[in-house]
Design brief:
Among the domains are: 62 residues, Nucleic acid-binding proteins (OB fold (Dihydrolipoamide Acetyltransferase, E2P)), CATH 2.40.50.140; 159 residues, 3-Layer(aba) Sandwich (Rossmann fold), CATH 3.40.50.300. It is built from nine helices and 13 strands.
Length: 343
């Protein structure tokens, strides 16, 4: 068995800078998070340890300091991929941490959705990850280049290409983003081929399931996140299919992905322009000239409103929690003082 170094696991200068000589514990990287425990990777191999706090505060890919039994502390993340949790809660759900490249996997069929891809791209940009768009089922499309051109136009930051996930040579294109010390994460809907890509990149034969013929939607294969070694020497995080992707705290990412829109906004005559019918509106002028797709403006508006609402909801929830904590501490202090007075 080949021994791994910390550098092999993805350790780099930003993480080393957070440690001090003589500090207790050793670095380890989180490869799996369960309800009560963490699985971590070290040069000595994998270990199961106890978290110092709720496992919900850890993500696959995190770096921690550990004494071999439990975490001593978690190091600051270089990148953090998160979304607003599905359902009525306002919490942010961690997806992965310290990912270098986020591969957004979709397919050359009915699953291809521009609005959804823009959401993923905004999430990647907000997280600080390099974005890829990987278009699978290229062998089933009359001209997959149409999908590649459409995906490439969504952002100047993105690299897009089409492949057949069952073809090892095609999937090998991704080796450039998961070589030694690099971490690649796969996100996308169920049934688009993420698990098949994982099998080719890692050599692990995980079960796969086909898509439904009527709507091109797949069934869930991956049910949890884990950090797996790739044949190219790096690391891969495969994630369960995401049915609902709502953004939170992603304003910077939205601005980066929609830079064509935000650049035009800066050219409007009035700073409070609503971009509807105001005189001197650069956005509406670009639409009239065919430079900007009105649908893209609508999608930008929707994402901006959603992100602002979700971000405010999360902040309000945290403020209420802090307020409740202060009230609880005050109540305990008053009760303690009363007991002392009664004595």
């Amino acid at each position: 068995m080949t021994l791994l170094t910390l550098a092999d696991l993805g350790w780099s200068a930003p993480f080393a800078a957070q440690t001090e000589d003589g500090e207790p514990g050793t670095p380890a990287r989180v490869s799996e998070v369960t309800r009560d425990t963490l699985t971590v990777l070290t040069p000595d191999g994998p270990h199961s340890i106890l978290p110092a706090e709720s496992t919900g505060l850890y993500a696959v890919g995190d770096w921690v300091m550990t004494d071999g039994l439990r975490t001593l502390r978690r190091l600051d993340r270089a990148t953090e991929i998160a979304r607003r949790a599905a359902g009525p809660t306002a919490d942010r759900q961690l997806i992965a941490a310290n990912v270098d490249t986020l591969a957004i996997v979709t397919s050359c069929n009915a699953d291809f959705n521009v609005a959804r891809l823009e959401r993923y791209l905004a999430m990647a940009s907000s997280a600080g990850c390099l974005p890829l768009i990987v278009l699978t089922k290229a062998d089933q499309s009359d001209d997959p280049r149409d999908y590649v051109r459409t995906a490439s136009r969504l952002s100047s930051l993105v690299t897009a290409f089409a492949l057949d996930a069952r073809d090892s040579e095609g999937v090998a294109l991704l080796n450039a983003w998961c070589g030694r010390g690099q971490t690649l994460a796969l996100v996308g809907s169920s049934g688009v081929g993420k698990t098949t890509i994982q099998n080719r990149l890692t050599g692990v034969d995980a079960a796969t399931q086909g898509i439904r013929e009527d709507d091109a939607k797949g069934r869930h294969t991956t049910t949890s996140r884990s950090l797996r070694p790739t044949l190219a020497g790096g690391w891969l995080i495969d994630t369960p299919g995401i049915r609902e992707l709502q953004l939170s705290d992603a304003a910077d990412g939205i601005e980066a992905v929609f830079s064509d829109v935000t650049c035009l906004i800066g050219q409007c005559r009035f700073s409070d322009c609503a971009h509807v019918s105001e005189p001197g509106c650069a956005v509406q002028a670009a639409i009239a000239e065919g430079i900007l797709d009105p649908g893209r403006l609508d999608r930008w508006r929707k994402l901006e409103r959603e992100d602002r609402f979700n971000s405010e909801a999360v902040n309000e929830r945290h403020a209420r929690a802090r307020s409740f904590g202060k009230m609880s501490k005050g109540g305990k202090a008053r009760a303690k003082a009363k007991r002392g007075f009664d004595l």
